[in-house]
Amino acid sequence: MRIKSPRKRRRLKYIAILPSLVTLMNGLCGFTAIIFASRSMDTMWQPHLLPKVNISFFALAGYMIFLGMIADVLDGHIARISKSTSSFGAQVDSLCDVISFGAAPAFLMLKLVEVHSHQLYFENDKYAQLFGRAVYLIAIIYAMCAVIRLARFNVENKEDDSSHLSFAGLPSPPAAGIIVSLIIFQQDFLPKIVEGSDRSFRIFQMITVWALPVITLIAGLLMITRIPYPHVVNRLLRGKKRFSTFLLVVFTLLLVIWNIQIAMVLGFFVFMFYGLIRWLVLKLIPRKRVEHPVLEHEDAGG
Questions:
Q1: What is the C-alpha radius of gyration for the chain, rounded to an integer number of angstroms?
Q2: In angstroms, rounded to a whole number, what is the distance separating the alpha carbons of residues 84 and 58?
Q3: Are residues 147 and 95 in contact, defined by beta-carbon separation less than 8 angstroms?
Q4: Is a pLDDT exceeding 60 seen at residue 5?
Q5: By CB neighbour count within 10 A (0-12 exposed, 13-18 middle, 19+ buried), where does 258 fall?
Q6: 249 or 291, which is more confident?
Q7: Which pLDDT tens digit goes with each residue over 153-198?
């Protein structure tokens, strides 16, 4: 009886260098964001070369995640332009996305709420402990949802261009952007317009602490749903568009130039609620059935 030898695995010999480097830049930004988020909020980043720069490490971690989003957009387009797409690049991209858009936003939310939790009022310590455990659980749920989302994407993803025009479920970069944009707004924009000792500033801080875990949970659950979301970048770059679409892009760019923090908050939240509301409307409003008229045939002797 002949024993079959185990099938040899094909070794990876060639990879595309430039797209892989850009993809690894995404993972590097996510890991750096985790390092920055581990610092205390009271510690401000003040580089020697830029003495006027004064930014919290929480906001800096958020900007690193956004830098990872830019790298995530570029690597796919570079691979398609250079015709060097491969399964290896897709796997590396998803692994880096788990770091940048899964673990990093969850850890950033967890640390920020942990720092500000002393400002919240609880009747006794049991409620405070319950809130802290809930925040830890939400961070874990979000990170696990990101892992499931990206694993499902790898299994169901196709190489043809038509499959890259929409997503099943909220993509992981916008999910992370929803969390991070709110943190950057609270850490980098609000202190510039409101003094830290002002009552309105403290109120907004408390609102952020209460809202962040809820928003994180919603974003995590939306990632593993089948709610359709458009691929904005691929749709804009594909073919000719209406003049109204051009005006919308110009308005968005002007908003980014005027204030990037407000633009990020509005952009990511509008994207999240657009897909959710559109899906609910299509589910609640039944589609009209086209009724074909029935023709009555007359008898010959009629």
A1: 24
A2: 36
A3: no
A4: no
A5: exposed
A6: 249
A7: 888 776 555 555 677 888 999 999 999 999 988 887 777 776 655 6
C-alpha 211/C-alpha 191 separation (Å) is 19
pLDDT at 296: 44
Q: Comparing 288 with 158, which gets the higher pLDDT?
A: 158
pTM for the model stands at: 0.80
Helix axes 260-284, 199-223, angle to 10 degrees: 50
Q: Other CB atoms closer than 10 Å to residue 231's CB: what's the count?
A: 15
120: exposed, middle or buried (C-beta count within 10 Å: 0-12, 13-18, 19+)? Answer: middle
Residue 302 has pLDDT above 60, yes or no: no
- Nearest Cα residue to 33 out of 183, 204, 135, 175: 183
Q: How far is residue 42's CA from residue 58's CA, in Å, rounded to a whole number? A: 10
Token code pair at residue 15: 């990879």
Cβ–Cβ contacts within 10 Å for residue 145, how many?
25
Torsion of CA 50, 56, 62, 68, to 10 degrees: 30
Return the residue matching tokens 């909220």: 170
